[in-house]
């Protein structure tokens, strides 16, 4: 996947730095990464863990990066890109992107039943099961 990281950063009002670019680059792979995995990918780039944590926090807040709850003890991160969901194997942790998103009826039902909310702006949705190797 070829991405223009400078454009992504500028689009979210971040200054383009080597460190920020390297973090986005580390997240450009197929699967969401935990912080230790991100740090491993950034080895040799002279970025300390606190800097990476701070950048991930800021990226998540501005929507550049998405934090995903894989029901492990730690969060995983990926480039936000196009809206999608995930299938996650409860046994081996394999992750597959899901681009089906058919939540309109569900959202309407939720809003009809809600006493407090009048609109839904976003959602995140992950599915947990067993991959074909682990069934
Ligand atoms: Zn599996
Ligand atoms: Zn994904
Ligand atoms: Zn969706």
Structure in words:
The chain is an alpha+beta fold. It folds into two domains: 5-79, Arc Repressor Mutant, subunit A; 85-129, 2-Layer Sandwich (Dna Ligase, domain 1). It is built from five helices and six strands. The protein has a three-stranded antiparallel sheet. It is globular and about 50 Å long. The chain binds zinc ion (3 copies).
Give the strand order, joined by hyphens, for the main sheet: 1-3-2
Bound molecules: zinc ion
CATH first level of the largest domain: which class?
Answer: Mainly Alpha
CATH T-level topology of the largest domain:
Arc Repressor Mutant, subunit A
Task: Count every helix, treating DSSP H or I runs of 4 or more residues as helices.
Answer: 5
Helical content (DSSP H or I, runs of 4+): 25-40%
Integer average pLDDT: 91
The overall strand count is: 6
Secondary structural class: alpha+beta
| Gyration radius from CA atoms, angstroms | 17 Å
Alpha carbon gap, first and last residue: 31 Å
**Percent strand:** 15-25%
Report the CATH superfamily of the largest domain.
Answer: Winged helix-like DNA-binding domain superfamily/Winged helix DNA-binding domain
List the topology elements:
Layout: H1 5-11, H2 18-26, E1 33-34, H3 35-41, H4 49-62, E2 65-68, E3 76-79, E4 85-89, E5 95-98, H5 104-113, E6 126-129
Parallel strand pairs: 4-6
Antiparallel strand pairs: 1-3, 2-3, 4-5
The chain binds zinc ion (3 copies).
């Amino acid at each position: 996947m070829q991405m223009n990281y400078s454009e992504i950063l500028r689009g979210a009002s971040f200054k383009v730095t080597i460190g920020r670019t390297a973090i986005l680059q580390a997240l450009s792979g197929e699967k969401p990464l935990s912080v230790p995995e991100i740090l491993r990918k950034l080895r040799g780039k002279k970025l300390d863990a606190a800097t990476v944590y701070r950048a991930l926090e800021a990226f998540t807040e501005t929507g550049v990066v998405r934090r995903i709850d894989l029901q492990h003890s730690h969060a995983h991160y990926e480039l936000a890109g196009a809206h999608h969901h995930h299938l996650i194997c409860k046994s081996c942790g394999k992750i597959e992107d899901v681009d089906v998103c058919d939540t309109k009826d569900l959202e309407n039902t939720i809003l009809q039943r809600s006493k407090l909310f009048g609109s839904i702006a976003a959602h995140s949705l992950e599915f947990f099961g067993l991959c074909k190797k682990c069934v």
